[in-house]
Design brief:
The complex is a heterodimer of chains A (about 550) and B (about 70). Chain A is mostly helical and about 550 residues long. Chain A has helices spanning about 10-30, 35-40, 50-60, 65-75, 80-85, 90-105, 110-120, 120-155, 160-205, 210-215, 240-255, 260-265, 270-290, 295-305, 320-325, 330-370, 375-400, 405-430, 435-455, 465-490, 525-540. Chain A has a single domain, classed as Sodium/glucose cotransporter. The longest helix of chain A has about 50 residues, at about 160-205. With about 70 residues, chain B is of the alpha+beta class. Chain B has one domain. Chain B has helices at about 5-25, 45-65, and strands at about 30-35, 35-40. A two-stranded antiparallel ribbon of chain B has the order 1-2. The two termini of chain B are about 20 Å apart. Classes of the chains: A mainly alpha (about 550), B alpha+beta (about 70). Chains A and B meet through helix 1 and helix 9 of A and helix 1, strand 1 and helix 2 of B.
């Protein structure tokens, strides 16, 4: 079976058009509120936690999340849910309970700025540059993935899709900054849920419910989360040690606890408890998201013969997009397509707003033009937004040249995010960690990942049964290299004076919140509820 | 600052009305097998109604908050 262009009617175009009007309209309404750089980059610290929480989740709901997880489910089965239940929720809880007090309490404007306050300028510069490059690359990949889907599904022009989506994202992020991005992410979250949920419901009925789906899967291991993880002889090719260490610890904590893209949403919250609740509020829908991504991937595997073949339109990446015209008539197809567009655009806008903040505060203000007026930095933030989108368009075209850009980007993540988490862990919880130890630890961790990928992989004992297994183990090695080298170098270099570490290190609090909260607003209680629920799901799908 | 629930309510009401209207004007049935029986739905009309209800719910939340006496 080859994928053919779906029939799209006028009603579908009207629904997509209405969506575009609303996202641009939100930017337009917020335009007049952007009076200072803090308004533009940090939303003036006055957004309620349910809004920042859903934005925290949606900023991560880009192409790789929605399409990629469905594709992984079609390729690896239910084990893909590990990316949520061990690869996200524990890290989100850790960020909320233990790390957010340092981020929010220290009043930093970005993650690299925390590294400057806790360590030194070189550590900040290293992180700011690597993050800026990563974010625009990721943003471009969202654009390219979107354009490819619409080309294969609807025969739309790749150029037109890229420029139209980039133009809309530019319009609302340029006018309304982070607030506009956050508000649109919340709207996009609900669109994604309402646009994709019927696929799971109808699809599950068509395959005979969960029991029918499990029977129809090509291997029994496709229906289990942990049962076949004792060894690497399972669809994912990864054993439980690699899952727990590589994904459950290093990769997930490295992403959720240090990536400014998501943390920026929490920093926009109105208070410290609200900032702490942000990842926890995001965790509640996140724990259920496999129903919108993993489940359709499994359904596609059963309902679409030939999925995963070499034909470009039948790649695993197309699992979810191919289900849209199969399940939806014209009308709902417009809602489904809008959900996909919303996913791509929220992922792209998240990257662009994180990029403009890091560029303006951590690179431009710090090294290029310090001591300028606030209005100058507000102007630079808008310029950075436009330039970031232009670079994203360029990287979208560069991405077309790579045969497997998703795998390539996961490698890049394991190079930079995995060692960064070791730096943060030591920096926040061990006051003896020295500035130069952090810098060289980061460099050594990144070099270890590069060495592992380009030199060692493929040679005994670094032979892996899947690309993902290689990613998990590389992350573990990079983290260990950074962790150990940072500790060793710390003993030979000078630590920061203790008085400079107030509010930045565990045991040196700057201010303690004395606010008494009702039980459902307390981060600790929310954390316990979400962890218990996650553990229960792990047993349910064992 | 803009209350985000207002544009969400407006968007979902507009999309809901469009879908329900289109579903009634151009009925398209979707067959869903459940436990050996096949149920037929007008997906545009039915899911459009859900979307419309969600939009109304969001709008009602804004109304209720505005009706509350300010602290």
């Amino acid at each position: 079976m080859a994928a053919s262009a779906a029939q799209i009617g006028w009603i579908d175009y009207v629904i997509i058009g209405v969506y575009f009007v609303f996202v641009i309209g939100i930017g337009y309404v917020l335009k007049g509120k952007m009076k200072s750089s803090e308004d533009f980059f940090l939303s003036g610290h006055n957004i309620p936690s349910w809004v920042t929480g859903l934005a925290f989740l949606s900023a991560n709901l880009g192409a790789i999340e929605v399409m990629g997880m469905a594709a992984n489910a079609a390729q690896y089965g239910v084990m893909t849910a590990h990316f949520y239940w061990i690869g996200a929720i524990p890290a989100m809880v850790f960020l909320a309970v233990f790390m957010m007090p340092f981020y929010y309490g220290s009043k930093v404007r970005s993650v690299p700025e925390y590294l400057k306050m806790r360590f030194n300028e070189p550590t900040r510069a290293l992180n700011a540059i690597s993050f800026a490059v990563m974010t625009v690359l990721m943003s471009g990949i969202n654009l390219y993935a979107m354009a490819l889907v619409f080309k294969l599904l609807l025969n739309w022009s790749i150029d037109a899709s890229i420029f139209a989506a980039a133009g809309v994202v530019l319009a609302y992020t340029y006018m309304g900054g982070l607030t506009s991005s956050i508000y649109n992410e919340v709207m996009q979250f609900f669109l994604i849920v309402f646009g994709l949920l019927p696929i799971s419901i109808i699809g599950l009925c068509k395959v005979g419910g969960w029991a029918g789906l499990c029977e129809k899967l090509k291997e029994p291991a496709f229906a289990h989360l942990w049962m076949h993880a004792g060894t690497s002889a399972n669809p994912m090719g990864v054993d439980w040690i690699a899952i727990c260490s590589g994904l459950g610890f290093v990769l997930s904590f490295g992403y959720w606890c240090t990536d400014f893209l998501v943390i920026q949403r929490a920093l926009a919250a109105e208070s410290l408890p609200a900032a702490q609740r942000t990842p926890l509020i995001a965790a509640f829908p996140k724990v259920l998201f496999p129903a919108l991504t993993v489940l359709p991937g499994l359904i596609a595997l059963v309902l679409i013969p030939g999925l995963g073949s070499n034909n470009e339109g039948m790649r695993y990446d197309m699992a979810l997009p191919l289900l849209l015209p199969m399940m939806y008539p014209s009308g709902m197809l417009g809602v489904g397509l809008t959900a996909m567009l919303a996913s791509f655009m929220s992922g792209m806008a998240g990257n662009v707003t994180a990029f403009n903040t890091v560029w303006t505060y951590d690179l431009y203000q710090s090294y290029i033009r310090p001591n300028q007026s606030d209005q100058h930095y507000l102007w630079m933030g808008k310029v950075a937004t436009a330039v970031g989108i232009l670079i994203s368009i360029a990287t979208a075209y560069i991405a077309m040249g790579f045969p497997s850009i998703m795998d390539y980007m996961q490698n890049i993540f394991s190079f930079f995010n995995a060692p960064l988490f070791a730096t943060f862990l030591l920096g926040m919880f061990w006051k003896r960690t020295t500035p130069w130890a952090a810098f060289f630890g980061l460099v050594i961790g990144t070099l270890t990942a590069i060495l592992h990928f380009y030199v060692l992989t493929g040679h005994e004992p670094f032979v892996y049964t899947s690309v993902m297994a290689g990613n998990f183990w590389r992350s573990t090695f990079a983290w260990l290299a950074c962790f150990i080298s940072t500790i060793v170098i710390s003993f030979f270099t000078k630590p920061k004076p203790e008085e400079e570490l107030e509010g930045l290190v565990w045991g040196k609090p700057k201010e303690v919140s004395t606010e008494v909260l009702v039980w459902y607003k307390r981060p600790g209680i929310l954390a316990i509820i979400i962890l218990v629920f996650t553990i229960a799901l792990n047993f349910l799908f064992w | 600052m803009l209350d985000i629930r207002i544009p969400i309510a407006a968007l979902f009401i507009v999309v809901g009305v469009l879908l329900v209207g289109y579903g009634l004007a151009v009925p398209t049935s979707v067959d869903v097998p459940v436990n050996g029986n096949t149920y037929t739905f007008n997906l545009n009309r039915d899911w459009g109604a859900m979307i419309l209800l969600f939009g109304i719910f969001m709008g009602a939340l804004v109304k209720m908050d505005k009706a509350k006496p300010s602290k």
